[in-house]
Amino acid sequence: MRATGLMAARLGALLGATALAALLPATAQAQSRPDQKAFFGLYKELVETNTTLSVGSCTKAAEQIGARMKAAGYSDSAITLFSVPDHPREGGIVVILDGSDKKAKPMLLLGHLDVVEAKREDWVRDPFTLIEEDGYYYARGTVDDKAQAAIWADSMIRFKTEGYKPKRTIKLALTCGEETTYAWNGAQWLAQNKPDLIAAEFALNEGGGGRYDATGRRQVLAMQVGEKASQNYTFLVTNPGGHSSQPVPINAIYQLADAIKAVQGYEFPVKFTDTTRVFFIASAAAVGGPMATAITRLLTNPEDAEADAVVSRDKAMHSTLRTTCVATIATAGHAENALPQRASANINCRIFPGETVEGTRLKLQELAGPAVTVTANAPIRPTAVPTKLDPKIMGPARTLAAQHFPGVPLLPLMSTGATDGIFLQAIGIPVYGAPGTFIDPDGNGTHGLNERIRVESIYAGRDYLFDLVKLYAG
Predict the structure, then answer these.
(1) What is the Cα–Cα distance from 89 to 58, expressed in whole angstroms?
(2) With 396 labelled, which of 26, 203, 388, 462 sits at a CA distance of 20 to 30 A?
(3) Model confidence over 208-243: pLDDT tens digits?
(4) Residue 399: CB partners within 8 Å, gap ≥ 6?
(5) CA-CA distance, 223 to 278, in Å (whole number)?
């Protein structure tokens, strides 16, 4: 869930300057209910199944979930386990609970089974053993994304065992490959090869959630409504080189450095979606002062450079306003005593919804100049589609949040990161990052060391999301 930590940062930007009035203490966790114990067994098994790209197996995790679905009463025809011969360990699962109203379009629950690599020697605890300590569950994937994957799978099991008959068909897709750019991606494969299997009016995915303050009180909930597209580009300069004792003006490293500096100095234009406009209006109301004035001016005139400079002092707001591109890797030269024959850099861009990979490449080429070749690296992501700020999605989520988390506001946010939702958007399925599970201001070690989630958070989030899916399913 690459978006989770970024979501926390954006909410921090919104909340850092002022305290919201409706901050309520978290309720005491309850883990004694039979359904909670059953969920814990599923969650523990999933977390402790290594699904890293290097040595793990999403296919094994998918098969374990499939066995639980069978035990709950799903027929073989309702369960689809999938993989491809070239990537036998990177499989996934689709499960379908038929609705009673064939005119109602299905909804889709999307999650990913794979996790970021974790080295035992770096962690305080074994990253693939679920450990409860000081009110937290520790392990790789406890947040990203096995919390949500387990909640979705558990919900499907509970619906079946309880005899729940939704009006709208509910589909579950748990896939592999989200965490690694060059990995085989199950969500992309389903979208391109099995679109009818996952066809839905909308999908609920990762990227939303909630934020605690430093004392553990719930501050705000977020529904992710849209995201940027992540795309890498290569800058390449080549020339004949020569002996370092006789330098010449044309030097591949200098040419590359000039191109990188040009990217550093360029700001893509300010743009708004319906979601980011709502976000910035709420931000202005929360922060007040000169920042609020600058935000208001920018909403009125996106070309107001002075207002942009003020708002963009906050890195989260800066990235929410525009496409961003940054140098992340540079490689040059072949010997200490030789002029460089080759210099290259990776430029990572997060492309604003509606802007294209090729359009961004052309701008980078313009900035880099004719001496530099700019290419888009495979895989090339689809164009991010602005997601509709739909009251049929936001309304039920907000109404239910008032019951589960009284006094905690729910806001729409656009992710500056990227998820597998972009592949579903490309085939016409609007994707929303579901709220419900809260994280700490530091991001809970997601993608880093000692990943963790509050025990209270996952059980409260599970109850909320179970009820939310039922509400959407009618």
Answers:
(1) 6
(2) 26
(3) 999 999 999 999 999 999 999 999 999 999 999 999
(4) none
(5) 12
pLDDT digits (tens, 9 = 90+) for 20-30: 433 333 333 45
Round the average pLDDT of the chain to a whole number and report it: 93
Token pair in block for residue 234:
């290569």
Give me 195's structure tokens: 């679109």
Rounded-to-integer distance, Cα 141 and Cα 295, Å: 37
Q: What letter represents residue 209's amino acid?
A: G
pLDDT band with cut points at 50, 70 and 90 for residue 32: confident
Rama region for 148: left / alpha / beta (φ>0; ψ in -120 to 50; rest): alpha
Please report where in the chains the tokens 């201001």 appear, as a residue.
441
Phi then psi for residue 427, to 5 deg, are -110, 20
Taking the C-alpha atoms of residue 63 and residue 114, their distance in angstroms, rounded to an integer, is 14
CB 141 within 8 A of CB 115: yes
Q: What is the pTM of this model?
A: 0.91
Among positive and negative, which fits the CA dihedral 298, 301, 302, 308? negative
Question: Which letter does DSSP use for residue 48 in this model?
Answer: T
Query: Can you spell out the DSSP letters for 91-144?
Result: EEEEEEE--S-TTSPPEEEEEE-------GGGSSS-TTS-EEETTEEESTTTTT
Rounded to whole angstroms, the Cα distance separating 183 from 192 reads: 16
CA 322 to chain CA centroid, Å, is 18
pLDDT digits (tens, 9 = 90+) for 409-464: 999 999 998 899 999 999 999 999 999 999 999 999 999 999 999 999 999 999 99
